[in-house]
Design a protein that fits this description.
about 725 residues; Sodium/glucose cotransporter; mainly alpha; 28 helices; 3 domains; two-stranded parallel sheet
C-alpha cells in the first residue's frame, strides 16, 4: 500500500508541477490556480484514489481467502455492492467529461435543452431495466453481458459481441473520455491536449490496475456526489455572471432570434443578481414563446423541428430509446456495477436511485453550456479560429492544391464571414471556376445585408453560397491525388463551453480546486471503469473462453486476474494513442461522435437480448446473426443518407435498423416454432437472492412521474 500511495503521490506531484508551470507561463495571472488550491487539488485527488485502493485491499483477509475470491473479487467487487454504492457508481461511471464537455457543448450549440432527452429519458429506461433486464442477468450469475449470449444462444454470439464491444469501448468512449478530460485540463491550465491525455490515463490506470472494480466503486461514491455539487457551483456562478450586467453589452448573446424579450429593459437589473440571472437566461433562450414555436436558437425547449439533424422530435418515437436501453441495460461498463450487487433488491434500489440522480444532471451540465454561449460566445469563436489556422496550415503543408471546407456557421457569423468568402474564392480560383465568382460575390453582398440576428436568413444564404462552391469543386474534392480538402472550418468550438466557464468564472472564488478535482476525479473514475470493463471482456469472454476450448479447462482465478491487469495496461495505451485525434471538428462534437458510432452495435444487440429474454423459441442462430444484421442495416441506412436518400438523424437510423433485426428475429422464431423447435429456458443458478424490491417499485413510479413533469415543463 505504501508503494502504491507513493506512486500516486509522485504522479500527482508531477501533474501538479506541470500544471502550475504551464499556468504560470501561459495563462493570465488572474486565471492561474493559486498554489494553495493546487496543493489541495493534488491532496484530494490522491486521497480519494488512495481510499479506493485501500477499500479494495480487504487487509483483514488472508492470502488464501483473496486467492479463492480471485476473479469475482477483482472484476465484480466480490458481488457485494450495496444499493447506494451501485447508484452513485452508475452515476459517476456515466457522468464524466463526456457530458461536461460533449453534452454541454451540444447545448451551447443549437440543440440547447433538447440534448437533455438523453438524460431524462434515461431515467425512465433505468426503471424499466431494473425490473426487466436485471433479473434476467442476475439469476444467471454472469460476469459479462456477452456471457449471457452464450448461455441463451451460443458461443459464437458471445465472441462476436465481446470482440466488437471491446473494440468500440476502447476506441470510442474510452478514448473520448480521455480526450474530453484533457480538453478541460488544457483550457484551464494551457496544456497541450496530448499532455492532458497522458496525465488522466496514467492516474486511471494506476488504481484500476491495483484495485479492480471495488476501487472504482468507492471512488465513484465520492466523485459522483462531488460532480453534482461541482456542476451546481459552476451553474450558480454563470447565472450570477449573467445577472451582474446592468446593461446589455455586446458579448451577451441571445440564442432566441425571434424573441421579443431580449430588450435592454428586459435585461436590466431588478434588484437580485441571482434572480436577474435566471430571468435573463429565460429571456435570452426562450425562443418564440408567443408564437408557440421554438424559434431558431431557442435553447430552453425539449422538442426540436422534424428536420433537425441530431434531435428531431421523431427520435422520441423509437430512435432515442435504443441507445438508452443499450447503454443502461446491455453496456458492460455500466451493467458491471449492477452485476456486482449483493442481491436483486439491492441492485434494483441502486438503479432507481441512479435514475433519480439523472433527473438533476441537465441542471448542472446542460444549463451551464447554454450560459457559456450567452456569456462567452466570442471565446468559443476564438478557439475555433485558432483551430482553423492550424487546420489550414496542415493542409497547405501537404504540397497539394487545397480546397477549403467551410461550415455554414462561419458565414453566418459576421466577424468570420469575410474570411470565409475569401476561402471560397480561393476554391473557385484553384479549380478554374472564374465564371462562378460573380454569383458568389452577389450572394455574399446579399448575406452582408441580412441583420446579424436573422440567423435563419443568414443560414439560408450561407447554404446557397456553399452549394455554389461544392458544385464547382466536386471533381477536385474527389481527386485525392492532386487535391487535399481541409477539415471543416467551424465557427465555434462548442466542446470548450464548460471549460471556458471554469476559466472565466472560478479563479479567485476559492471553488476552483473543488470543481477541478471533481471533474478530474470523475473522468479518471469513468476511465477506470471503462478499462476495468474492457479488461473483463477480454479476460472472461476471449482469453478464458479460448483457454477452455484449447486446453479443456478454464483458467484459475489467479491467472484471470493477472491477464486482466495486463489487459488494463494494453487498453489504456491504445485509448491514449487514439484520444488526441479526437481534437478535430470533423467529429462534429465528442458527444455526438460517441453516440453515432455506437449505432453500429446497439440496435442489433438490443434486438438479440430482447428476443433472448422474452422469446424462448427464438432459435440460437439469431444470437450472432442479429448482431451482424444490425451493423449491416445501420451502415446501409448511413450509406443511403450519403447518397441523399434521406436526411434523418442517426437516432432514426438506429430505429430503422432495430425494426429490420426484429423482423428477422420474428421470422426465425415463427419458422422454429413451425418446425417444432424447443424453447430455451434459463434457470436460476442461485448465486444471489432474487427477491424483487417493493420500495424500488414505488420510487420507480415516482421517478417516471417526475420525468413526465419535466418534459411538460420544458416542452
Amino acid at each position: 500500500m505504501k508503494q502504491i500511495l507513493t506512486m500516486l503521490g509522485a504522479l500527482a506531484l508531477m501533474s501538479g508541477t506541470a500544471l502550475a508551470q504551464e499556468a504560470a507561463a501561459a495563462a493570465p495571472a488572474q486565471d492561474a490556480l493559486p498554489l494553495w488550491e493546487m496543493i489541495v487539488f493534488c491532496v484530494v485527488v490522491v486521497g480519494v484514489i488512495g481510499l479506493g485502493i485501500w477499500k479494495s485491499s480487504d487487509s483483514g483477509e488472508s492470502a488464501e481467502e483473496k486467492k479463492e475470491k480471485g476473479a469475482a473479487d477483482y472484476f465484480l467487487a466480490g458481488r457485494g455492492l450495496s444499493w447506494w454504492l451501485v447508484g452513485f457508481s452508475l452515476l459517476a461511471a456515466n457522468i464524466s467529461t463526456e457530458q461536461f464537455v460533449g453534452m454541454s457543448g451540444q447545448s451551447a450549440d443549437w440543440l440547447g435543452l433538447a440534448i437533455a432527452g438523453y438524460e431524462w429519458l434515461a431515467a425512465i429506461v433505468l426503471v424499466i431495466v431494473a425490473f426487466t433486464f436485471l433479473p434476467m442477468l442476475l439469476k444467471r450469475g454472469v460476469f459479462t453481458i456477452p456471457q449471457f449470449l452464450e448461455e441463451r444462444y451460443n458461443g459464437v454470439a458471445r465472441v462476436i459481441m465481446a470482440l466488437v464491444n471491446l473494440l468500440i469501448l476502447v476506441g470510442v468512449p474510452t478514448a473520448a473520455v480521455i480526450y474530453a478530460g484533457a480538453s478541460v485540463v488544457s483550457v484551464y491550465f494551457d496544456l497541450p491536449v496530448t499532455t492532458g491525455c497522458l496525465i488522466i490515463a496514467g492516474a486511471a490506470t494506476v488504481y484500476v490496475y491495483v484495485g479492480g472494480l471495488k476501487a472504482c466503486a468507492w471512488t465513484d461514491l465520492i466523485w459522483g456526489a462531488a460532480l453534482i455539487v461541482g456542476g451546481g457551483v459552476v451553474a450558480y456562478f454563470a447565472i450570477m455572471a449573467l445577472g451582474a450586467y446592468t446593461t446589455v453589452p455586446e458579448n451577451i448573446v441571445a440564442t432566441a432570434v425571434t424573441s421579443a424579450n431580449t430588450s435592454a429593459d428586459a435585461l436590466a437589473s431588478t434588484g437580485s443578481q441571482f434572480c436577474d440571472g435566471l430571468s435573463r437566461m429565460m429571456n435570452l433562450n426562450a425562443g418564440d414563446v408567443e408564437g408557440a414555436t421554438n424559434g431558431i436558437g431557442g435553447k430552453l425547449h425539449m422538442m426540436r423541428e422534424k428536420t433537425d439533424p441530431v434531435m428531431p422530435w421523431t427520435v422520441y418515437l423509437l430512435g432515442l430509446w435504443i441507445p438508452n436501453f443499450f447503454y443502461w441495460g446491455l453496456n458492460q461498463y455500466i451493467m458491471q456495477r449492477t452485476l456486482a450487487s449483493k442481491s436483486l433488491e439491492e441492485g434494483q434500489l441502486g438503479i432507481v436511485f441512479a435514475a433519480f440522480l439523472k433527473l438533476l444532471i441537465p441542471f448542472v451540465v446542460i444549463i451551464p453550456g447554454i450560459l457559456a454561449y450567452n456569456l462567452y460566445r466570442d471565446d468559443l469563436a476564438a478557439k475555433a479560429d485558432s483551430n482553423s489556422v492550424a487546420i489550414v496550415q496542415a493542409a497547405e503543408a501537404t504540397g497539394k492544391k487545397v480546397i477549403y471546407d467551410i461550415a455554414a456557421s462561419r458565414l453566418v457569423r459576421e466577424d468570420s464571414a469575410a474570411s470565409s468568402v475569401d476561402y471560397l474564392k480561393k476554391n473557385l480560383a484553384i479549380v478554374g471556376a472564374a465564371d462562378v465568382v460573380p454569383a458568389l460575390e452577389a450572394k455574399a453582398a446579399e448575406l452582408a445585408a441580412i441583420p446579424a440576428k436573422d440567423i435563419a436568413g443568414r443560414t439560408a444564404k450561407a447554404e446557397e453560397m456553399l452549394a455554389l462552391d461544392k458544385t464547382a469543386t466536386a471533381a477536385a474534392r474527389s481527386n485525392v491525388a492532386d487535391y487535399t480538402v481541409t477539415t471543416t472550418l467551424a465557427a465555434y468550438q462548442y466542446d470548450y463551453a464548460f471549460a471556458t466557464l471554469l476559466r472565466k468564472l472560478l479563479p479567485g472564488t476559492g471553488w476552483a480546486w473543488f470543481v477541478l478535482a471533481a471533474l478530474f476525479g470523475a473522468v479518471v473514475s469513468s476511465l477506470a471503469s471503462m478499462l476495468n470493463s474492457a479488461s473483463t471482456l477480454f479476460t472472461m469472454d476471449l482469453y478464458n473462453k479460448s483457454k477452455e476450448v484449447i486446453t479443456g479447462k478454464p483458467a484459475s482465478g489467479t491467472q484471470l486476474v493477472a491477464v486482466g491487469k495486463v489487459a488494463v495496461l494494453v487498453c489504456a495505451v491504445i485509448a491514449t494513442v487514439v484520444a488526441p485525434f479526437l481534437d478535430n471538428p470533423a467529429f462534429g462534437g465528442i458527444f455526438t461522435f460517441i453516440q453515432e458510432f455506437q449505432g453500429f452495435l446497439s440496435p442489433g444487440v438490443l434486438a438479440v437480448f430482447l428476443f433472448g429474454f422474452f422469446v424462448p423459441k427464438c432459435p440460437r442462430i439469431f444470437g450472432w446473426l442479429g448482431i451482424v444484421i444490425g451493423a449491416v442495416a445501420y451502415a446501409s441506412f448511413k450509406w443511403v443518407e450519403i447518397l441523399g436518400f434521406t436526411g434523418d438523424s442517426f437516432l432514426n437510423r438506429m430505429g430503422y435498423s432495430l425494426i429490420v433485426v426484429c423482423v428477422v428475429g420474428l421470422i426465425l422464431t415463427i419458422v422454429n416454432h413451425l418446425k417444432g423447435g424447443e424453447a430455451v429456458v434459463l434457470e436460476d443458478k442461485g448465486i444471489i437472492e432474487m427477491k424483487t424490491s417493493g420500495r424500488a417499485k414505488g420510487f420507480g413510479w415516482a421517478v417516471i412521474a417526475a420525468t413526465v413533469a419535466l418534459y411538460i415543463l420544458f416542452w
